[in-house]
Specification:
This protein is mainly alpha-helical and 195 residues long. The protein has 2 domains: 152 residues; 38 residues. Helices cover 68% and strands 2% of the residues. It has a two-stranded parallel ribbon with strand order 1-2. Helix 2 packs antiparallel against helix 6 and helix 8 crosses helix 9. The longest helix is centred in the C-terminal third of the chain and has 39 residues. The protein starts with a strand and ends with a helix.
Length: 195
């Protein structure tokens, strides 16, 4: 059972009003301006945890993944969202927040550009709902079923999964049709040679 979180509108407004600093280019090597690991470490400390270790920072900044620059941008936006006073008042949010940042940012980066999580209302709602869900909360005033249904409806990751499954099913169906056509032709050819 999920605990009741803050009103969805409060967190949506927070994302819509994100400071420009959180939208700056993440520092990768000598390019970019925002030190993502420092921002994440400050967040984890604000949530009651210790600063990030070098190993945790390395996991967070993994540049071997596809779309890592976009992932780091989403990570910064997620940090801003998690800096909300509601999360800071909760106990033991640091490990859940770190898990959310390290897993969800990568999933989302594979399907959506980071700026969309600020500019697009549906993507803002998706990020907020994913964050609340992953941290064990539901939006205030919604049942767990309502919250999950809405998340499934707007989830870009779920949409990509459904599209991929549909493509795979179509490919299987095409393959079966081609095999059936080959067998039918072979049977027709065999019938002609017998006669």
């Amino acid at each position: 059972m999920k605990k009741e979180g803050p009103p969805l509108e409060d967190l949506l407004r927070r994302l819509a009003e994100i400071p420009a600093d959180f939208l700056e280019e993440p520092r990768i090597g000598r390019t970019g301006t925002v030190a993502v690991a420092a921002v994440a470490s400050d967040l984890i400390r604000a949530l009651g945890g210790p600063p990030l270790t070098e190993a945790q920072a390395k996991v967070l900044l993994d540049t071997d993944t596809k779309g890592y620059r976009n992932r780091l941008g989403i990570l910064l936006i997620g940090c801003w969202l998690l800096y909300d006073e509601f999360f800071q008042k909760q106990k033991g949010m640091d490990s859940s927040a770190f898990a959310f940042l390290t897993t969800r940012a990568g999933e989302l980066a594979a399907v959506t550009p980071a700026p969309k999580f600020v500019s697009d209302p549906d993507r803002r709602e998706e990020l907020v709902r994913l964050c609340l869900n992953d941290l064990g909360f539901g939006p205030a005033g919604e049942t767990e079923t309502q919250a999950q249904d809405r998340l499934n409806t707007i989830s870009s990751v779920e949409r990509q999964r459904v599209i991929l499954a549909a493509r795979q099913a179509e490919e299987r169906a095409r393959s079966i049709r081609e095999e059936m056509a080959r067998k039918a032709k072979a049977e027709a050819d065999a019938k002609i040679t017998r006669e």
